[in-house]
Amino acid sequence: MDTLIDLYSAQPFWLWLAIGALLLAVEAAASTEWLLWPAVSAGIVAVVTALGLSLGLAGEVGLFAALTLASTLLSRRLVQRVNPDDQPDINDRDRRLIGQKATVVEPFVDGRGRVFVSGAEWSAELDGDAPLASAPVIVTGVGTGRLTVKAA
Fold first, then answer.
1. Which terminal Cβ of the chain has fewer Cβ within 10 Å, N or C?
2. What's the rounded Cα separation, in Å, for the pair 38 and 55?
3. What is the reported pTM?
């Protein structure tokens, strides 16, 4: 502990930079998006100490905490504005299929068949009248490994 206190006394910039780099490394490994803003905040505190502003340990920790809190809250607002919850996530392939045209590959028997959509063949349930083979259908829903379709 004395070594850490001596390091802080001599070079607070390097200590804050190391904290930021450590947080960034953990964020890169875990990709949670929760440690990105504390890493950036530690980097800002490192720059503040490099500029010679003497806040003391308590002031620097307070600045770090305030920056982390503010940046995390602002980033959540920004993410919600850019990627609202009512639109499917770009990585959620299944939900993005809703509304797309598909082609019947295997005729529907007892309401079940197979369709081709977005470069893949899917098991499907029919919603409405049975279309013929090779007929276009529209994806209306997504279940566990199965699409719900209706005639186009």
1. N
2. 19
3. 0.54
125 bridge partner residues: 112, 148
**What gap in Å lies between CA 98 and CA 114, rounded to an integer?**
16
**138-148 average pLDDT score:** 85
Amino acid at residue number 84: P
φ, ψ (nearest 5 deg) of residue 130: -80, 125
pLDDT digits (tens, 9 = 90+) for 58-86: 999 999 999 999 999 998 888 777 766 66
Residue with tokens 């013929």: 132
pLDDT at 67: 96
Other CB atoms within 10 Å distance of the CB of residue 83: 11
Alpha carbon distance 11, 67 (integer Å): 21
Residue 141 · residue 98 · CB < 8 Å: yes
Q: How far apart are CA 65 and CA 103, in angstroms?
A: 55
